Amino acid sequence: MAGGANGMDAAASADPEMKFPGQRKHKHYFPVDARDLRAKELSAMSRPQRTHICGIAQTLVDIEAHVDDELLARHNLVKGNSLLISDEAAHILYAELKQRALIKEEHAGGTIGNTLHNFATLSDERAVLFAVMEKQIEIGSYAYKYLSYTSSKVDVNQLQPVDGPIGRCFTLITPCGERSFAISKGAMDKLEPASIKPELIKTAGALVFASYLMRSADGDNIDQAALRAMAVAHEANVPVVLTLGTRFLIEQDPQFWRDFIAEHVTVLAMNEEEAEALTGESDPLKASEIALQWCDMVLCTAGPEGLYMAGYCDSAELRETEHELRSGSIGEFNQYEFSRPMRQQDCVDPVKVYSYIAPYLGGPVEILNTNGAGDGALAAVLHDMAANRYHKVNVPSSCKHSVSALTYSSFSQICKYANRVSYEVLIQHSPRLSRGLPEREESLEEGYWDR
């Protein structure tokens, strides 16, 4: 596994199996004539220890169709909203969309499913999926399509077999461009706590899940499965990552989510609407600062505005930016964005650190898909977190691990990486990447940690 964004040191570059999107410039490596004992330490190993991440997901298929207002009304759907519908209603809706040839795309979906797939595509590393799957899978079925569009690097061996269909999410786009969602849960929330494998979580780079899991209906135990997994992760000091999913869920009971995040979550991912629902603050930067009351690191995507990161770093480990200083609701907020994120509890003197980046190339000329852009950004962050664990396990004597950091790279570099991945998702129809990223852009910060 390669570092998610920052320059690799000589020990990392000695491993031919490590992968990073794009090709490195030779000047970014250590000089070839510089002997580094850490490189010898790694090359002397018969086989470097690999790493992985774990995710708890609702297995569902995304179905995108272009419809008119009359169809929405006839199927009792609310324009611009997200509604749960029964399996029977989903069957009737799907049959009409098929008959009228209104379906434009069908893809494997789900927030965590997308994130794990994109992580695996970017890193070429294992992503363990804890979820359910139909016991009997027919060719052409929803379940068949889900597995067909999932990276082979996603470990589906832990899937729990269930009777009944997996979930379906209909994205219905009206001529005005408004998106309405109809979700049929099927059996996607029937994951049992016994299906969680503690040994896999204890050795993971991160455990990731979405807010939807904690609002399962009576009789469905996916929330209990998630709580069991979180307890194992905390015991093993594995970062717990939560993505908020939708503002409609958060605004129903924001205090519940504040308390939940404070008790269970290390890293929080959200968009600007979810951030406002959680904190009551419409400014993404200020909302990110408020969220640091409850967690250690925040990723906040803000659509055409770009994305923000916020977190902590010990005062002794702060690194000043070489970029232009920015001010907003917080003055010169990016001053220390070349620092690496740390848990607040691991800091002797914790300082809040922020970073921001505008959309890559000003954003796509044409946006083909907005579903999954945030999931792509989160996959980049997870790649960097997993790379940190990989490097720490294989090169424990590296100076990078003299302090306990959450990531391999700095706030600034992770922002660039997440931003680039989001762009790639926006310019394709599927929320899941089909390939790695092209040549990466050069940075002022290349080799910063090797000086």
UniProtKB/TrEMBL annotation:
Alphabetical list of InterPro entries matching this protein: Carb_kinase_PfkB-like, IngK, PfkB_dom, Ribokinase-like
Residues reported in the UniProt entry to bind ATP: 301-306, 374, 419
Catalytic activity as recorded in UniProt: guanosine + ATP = GMP + ADP + H(+); inosine + ATP = IMP + ADP + H(+)
Domain Carbohydrate kinase PfkB intervals: 104-310
A GO term, aspect molecular function: kinase activity
Record bears the keyword Lipid metabolism: no
Broadest EC class assigned to this enzyme: transferase
Pathway(s) it belongs to: Purine metabolism; IMP biosynthesis via salvage pathway; IMP from inosine: step 1/1; Purine metabolism; GMP biosynthesis via salvage pathway
Keywords linked to the UniProt accession: ATP-binding, Kinase, Magnesium, Nucleotide-binding, Purine salvage, Transferase
Residues that coordinate or bind GMP: 110-114, 215
Keyword ATP-binding attributed: yes
Chain spans, region Disordered: 1-23
Domain of life: Bacteria
E.C. number: 2.7.1.73
Family: Belongs to the carbohydrate kinase PfkB family.
Its job: Catalyzes the phosphorylation of guanosine and inosine to GMP and IMP, respectively.
Full protein name: Guanosine-inosine kinase
Native organism: Ferrimonas pelagia
Protein encoded by which gene: gsk
